[in-house]
Amino acid sequence: MKFSRDQFLEDGYVILRQVIPPQELDDLRQAYEKLVERQRVIWARERGPDDPPGGVWETSAQPRLNLGLLAGQIDAQTVSAVEIWLHENTQGVSSCLLGVDDAAVTEMMLMCNPVRDHETGGHRGWHRDFYPPHTAPLQGYADDILENGPRYVQWNLPLYDDNVLWVVPGSHSRLNTDEENAALNSDARTPVPGAVQTHLAAGDGVAYILPLLHWGSRYNARMRRTVHGGFSEYTTHKDLPYLEHLSTESQESFKRWNGRSTQKFELIEAALRAAVDGDSTAFVAALDRLHPGRGEKGRLLSTIFLSKSAKRIHHLKSPDFDSLPEQERMWATSIHPMTLQWGRPLAGRFSEQEAETLWTRFKFVDDLLQDEEDQWTPGFQGEETRYYFDQVPADLSVEAFLATF
Prior knowledge:
This protein is of the alpha+beta class. Helices cover 41% and strands 14% of the residues.
């Protein structure tokens, strides 16, 4: 497919035509619809006592399937829902956009229309797909992208014509402008200055860089089946009971990605253990092996991510874990490889005492990322928090962190 990576890096997104080959579109629609039908049965069975008969299918503003949680539903009839993620038009293009040899499928989902309109209150307004208290300030992302390129590329692949997504070109690598903040504070569910609506025909695709300011403008009952997910260096699809249904080439790809993800997991543990030991040389070596070739800004972003990992491990090893707020418990157990978070599998590698020491080391980073009062910037997920949404403090650096060892 023809596209300009330079333009993608400048705009933060690219629209590609006929990503899904026209001759494969009908079969792919049928495969995903079978998955929807099977998931609807599960949602109906799992509904709460006060829920309507369809459960999530009837209550959600955007019913969403996660193929990573549908392992038992992937078979010979539905395996094309996975195979499309390994196509040259998706995996191959993503490798080029990320500037790597072999991008790994990280997430595979499907976004569906609700059964009734949610035009005003049921959907999210303009946002960036992260919440700084659990990841990093926006400037950390932007600096890393400008210095090293993106770590993740996200996709929308509509199976039917779709113009729901709006984007703000260039917003992935900068803070909000004053004009944008004024518009977002006024009404976060209308087009902001400079916004572009993506008009996608069935089978087209839009690929975009994670921090891009974007908006899903319509959550109504009009038919929508949009394949959604993305690529990074890692995969979270380690358990593959449907492997036998994939092509030989696809099987080898998942095995290769799983092997590489396991190696990265070990390097994350090595970096954290270096911090526990107060070994600055080993810490820097682990950072460089985690993300070879990334510069100063990239190492700083990874260090911020590791500070979040340290906090989650500390929570998970704490005897008071069950008394933490539900949101904190959920984030502590979640797996998000793009930000070096591996939940319980990683926490299980550390003793309670090691977790305490680890958090003591990284608290220096965590404290610098917070103000004394709550912060808020429009266009983000989450609520007010003491963590900075925009700027990385000038006195936070990898060198400053290592100096505390």
